[in-house]
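Dear all,

This email documents one entry for the complex benchmark we are building for the journal club exercise. For each entry we list the sequence lines for every component of the assembly. Then comes the predicted three-dimensional structure of the complex as a token string, followed by one or two observations. Please use this as the template for your own entries, and keep the labels exactly as they appear.
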Amino acid sequence: MSDFSLNVREEGDIVIIETTGYLNNVGGEKVSEACYEKMDSGKKHFLLNLEKSKVVNSIGVSILIEIIEKLQDVDGKLGYYNLAPIVEKTFNIMGLTKYSTVYYSEAEGLEGMA
Amino acid sequence: MVEVSASDQLDYYLASLDELGEVLIDAEKPESVGKGILRLTLGTVMASKGAIFLYHRTKEKLSVLASQGLQERKPFSPPKKLIDQSGKHRHDHIKLDKIPPWITGELKKCITESAMKILVPLFHKDHMLGVLCVGKKFMDEVFTATDLKILEIIANHLTKALYNYELIQDVEEKQTQLNLKLLELETLFDISVAISSVLDMDKLGEEILWRSVGILNASRGMMLIPKENSPILEPVNKFNWEETSALISKRLSIFKKIEEEKIGIILTPNDKNTLQKKLGEDNIIIAPLQAKDNILGYMLLCNKETRHGVEAFNQTDLDLLSALCNQGAVALDNARLFKDITQAKQFNESILGSIATGVITLDPLGEIDSINQAGLGILKMNMAEIIGNHYMYLFEKDEEIIELIQRAEIKNATHSEINMSFLTVSEEAVVNVSAAPRIDPDGDVQGLVIAIEDITDVSKVKNTFKRYVSKQVVDELLDDDAKLNLGGEEREVTILFSDIRGFTSMSENMKPEKVVSTLNEYFSDMIDIVFKHNGTLDKIIGDELMIVYGAPISADDDTNRAVKTAVEMQEQITRLNKNRKKRKEAPIMVGIGINRGIVVSGNIGSRDMMDYTVIGDAVNLGARLCSAASPGEILVSPTVWKETKKQFSYKELEPIKVKGKKIKVGVYRIENVS
């Protein structure tokens, strides 16, 4: 596994960001850049597909927290799906799941955020 | 100027204090509190400019929490004497009409820029939390004693609020730290669970590497395992690492050090180690994957990430990585052992599955716990009928086999028997059986291994063949199937024919049973000699014998043995006739002809009646020579003479005319036959 990349698309009002690679400082910054760019254009609901990001470190988590804080200021939401068990566990322990939602599929995520 | 009554002034201050309560209760963040209180303060004392500066004790910086009429600025270092000097006014205020000399630097700039008039230090006990600055009053009015008192009251509330937020922030930071510790513990726990659940070495290695990288905030990492019979450390698992051409040897000083001291190592930019150059990385942490005293490999991680770049790993990181690696090494060792055992089991099973001998294992109670495919074939049963049964039940029809197994059980030694009837399968079945104790690594007997070799077919072949060829030839054929070609082929053989002269007329005067007993006695003696010289009894036609040397198995001395057979046959007939004379019986006189030549050999006949035989001109010539031989004579063809003239004494006779041949055939007679 190497190099972080992401794919951004929209499903109605919801922005879906699919990541590939290590969600660390570099990966987290790329995700936040993508989110803030979309927020500038008025988007408030974001779904992260982390299927291809099997490892997330605490720096990646702190960047996600920043995104959540910024979204809270505009009544926005962040959700995730296709989380590896280790990633879901990390999110739970680091308290992310109190302020954002884990879904088990894109369809569930789209329905939950609508 | 509008006159304001003392009562209105009091109401206004009370309303401000009431609002202050609401700000403190409702605001969620220090920023909101700061903004709310600053707005309220300035409104209460009728000032247009002001600021609340927050002091970060750990960073030793002042930052603007909230401001009005002040340009934005980054956190800055406070004047050196700020804490000491302002501490003297912790329950008071400082008038800034004349800026005290200890207020310097950026703070002084702020005060000057916004023409601040009052500074109220925000102290909680001995800790400075910040300062509140208030600009000039509306219309340059003078701050009244009540204004100043109300400022101090608000500042006290602000101090409490900030202190509470500091506490909350501290708790939140500690909670984050605890969460990280919990994550570390959970990771260690997960790896300990993996020890008992993940037995795939590659998957396990990947799991340990990924978790180590994630938990230590490393940017990338790899797991290095020593290559067998080589000093190279192979990166078997990599994370966030492109293909590296760097050849990493365990002879590098750093790995030698780890191996000697059995502890991990941290490399920082100051170290300038060879490994750092090879990998192009400054910040490296390495921990050995150590199971007992054996180093299975190394975990190597690079670059501890922070929000502001990378930094060197520290001792806490090394302790955590070592703990992860110790757990991981046990898991890897288990997985390696499991892999070895699985491979050994598969190896044993493939051997047992490929051999023709049936192998049955018995547990200490005598119950069957495994049987190979050959065993199932020999017993003609399926697995379910056999597994779990006691051997005495399985072999209940074969007492001899049960006794053999019991002897092995009692004496804890291998016992074998060959050619045992095997009624468990059928009356015709014949087996070789061996029973040996199963001994575990501690030397304890854990049951028995029974090997059953089905020799029913071999036995049948032997019984069938032994009528035609000697036991030695049968054994040779059974040992090497390649020698047995019964399908039909051209080959050079030596053919011996013998015939009792005048037997037809002799038998006319004999009772039938006497004819049979005479022939049996004669054939028995003759065939013994044939088999002694490994001849193949091709046919018995009346009183005639046809013997072949060189089929189905060829040898260099086929002809020599054929001639020896003939000579010994005549010698035996002489002895036989002496006995017959004693019994007052007429002598038997035999003529023998031998030829060597190319024949076609194979199974010849109909589908119902097929015999292995040889046919061809060479056979016919042998028969003609036999016909031409006088009683007691052995006649051979030129091919036979040529091969054996050095071993036997011959006399060349007149060539004879043979049916089917235009040219007469040379004939040689063996001399000095008794």
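Observations: Strands of chain A lie at 5-11, 14-20, 45-52, 77-81, 101-103. The mean pLDDT of chain A is 91.
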